[in-house]
């Protein structure tokens, strides 16, 4: 019996050691793993995380990693209701570890925000692919100065002075306005929790035109942020 078990035990040990050796270099390639997990997400969020359909699918490239991870968990627990993403965030599809890896991968994707200058040698495909990545959200109408005043007073503390977000606070600059406005509506209706105590209050005190002015400011800010 023991004699029979021993070789198999040795095989398992060898296998385990072999796997360990295989896995350790992979740990250094979290990016590759991230890209792999991201595969099915691209159908909606685009190959480079640039989103699509004018904000039906949000841009997630360059979004804050910690924030995205928290959102994926919220989708999984149905705290934030997102019907299209439900099958992709089920436990068996996406473990918490994978959520972290994919969030970090997506956060690290930088999208150019200016039309690239091409070399004469660049072929049509190279040009097309480069253009697909360019992310410029159109300017929103509204009073930019008024929007700036409200934004800097009431939103900047969490979303950052240039609206790039930080940690658990999402980036707003460079995001589709349609998407942002839809989120504000969801918060106001109480369908999505904005922030535990303080923030729903912040959004609740704003008139629709003030929200529009904030959008005008955030889309104008884009150009400023891009120059940095
Ligand atoms: C079938 C389409 C679809 C697929 C596939 C999909 N998503 Fe989404 N995702 C959406 C939609 C739609 C929203 C916005 C929902 C809303 O308006 O509240 C969203 C929102 C998000 C958000 C929140 C963005 C923010 O700014 O709050 C993150 C993060 C995200 N998706 C990541 C992923 C990842 C990672 C995957 C792959 C594992 C994925 N999504 C797959 C449709 C999809
Ligand atoms: C006290 C901190 C705080 C302040 C102040 C604040 N927010 Fe937020 N905001 C958050 C947090 C946290 C989230 C993410 C909530 C979640 O988990 O869904 C968020 C999410 C958002 C989103 C959704 C982003 C996305 O990608 O889905 C919008 C839009 C938004 N806030 C707008 C505003 C505006 C406009 C103001 C100022 C009037 C503001 N917030 C002030 C903390 C804050």
TrEMBL record:
MF GO annotations: electron transfer activity; heme binding; iron ion binding
Native species: Azospira oryzae (strain ATCC BAA-33 / DSM 13638 / PS)
UniProt cross-references to Gene3D superfamilies, sorted A to Z: Cytochrome c-like domain
Keyword hit for Heme: yes
Annotated coiled-coil segments of the chain: none
Residues holding heme c 1: 41, 44-45, 85
Subcellular location: Periplasm
Record protein name field: Cytochrome c553
Principal subcellular localisation of the protein: periplasm
GO CC, any one term: periplasmic space
Domain called Cytochrome c: residue spans: 29-110, 142-222
């Amino acid at each position: 019996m023991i004699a029979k078990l021993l070789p198999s035990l040795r095989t398992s040990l060898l296998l385990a050691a072999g796997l360990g050796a295989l896995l350790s270099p992979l740990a250094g390639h979290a990016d590759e793993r991230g890209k792999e997990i991201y595969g099915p997400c691209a159908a909606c969020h685009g190959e480079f995380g640039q989103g699509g359909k004018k904000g039906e699918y949000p841009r997630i490239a360059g979004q804050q990693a910690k924030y995205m991870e928290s959102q994926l968990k919220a989708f999984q627990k149905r705290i934030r209701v997102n019907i299209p993403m439900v099958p992709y965030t089920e436990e068996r599809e996406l473990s918490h570890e994978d959520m972290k890896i994919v969030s970090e991968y997506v956060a690290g994707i930088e999208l150019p925000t200016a039309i690239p200058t091409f070399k004469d040698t660049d072929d049509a495909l190279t040009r097309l692919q480069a253009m697909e990545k360019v992310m410029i959200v159109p300017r929103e109408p509204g009073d930019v100065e008024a929007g700036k005043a409200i934004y800097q007073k009431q939103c900047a503390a969490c979303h950052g002075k240039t609206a790039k977000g930080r940690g658990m606070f999402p980036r707003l600059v460079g995001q589709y306005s349609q998407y942002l406005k839809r989120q504000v509506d969801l918060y106001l209706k109480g369908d999505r929790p904005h922030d535990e105590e303080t923030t729903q209050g912040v959004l609740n005190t704003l008139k629709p035109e003030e929200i529009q002015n904030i959008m005008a400011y955030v889309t104008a800010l884009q150009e400023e942020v891009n120059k940095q």
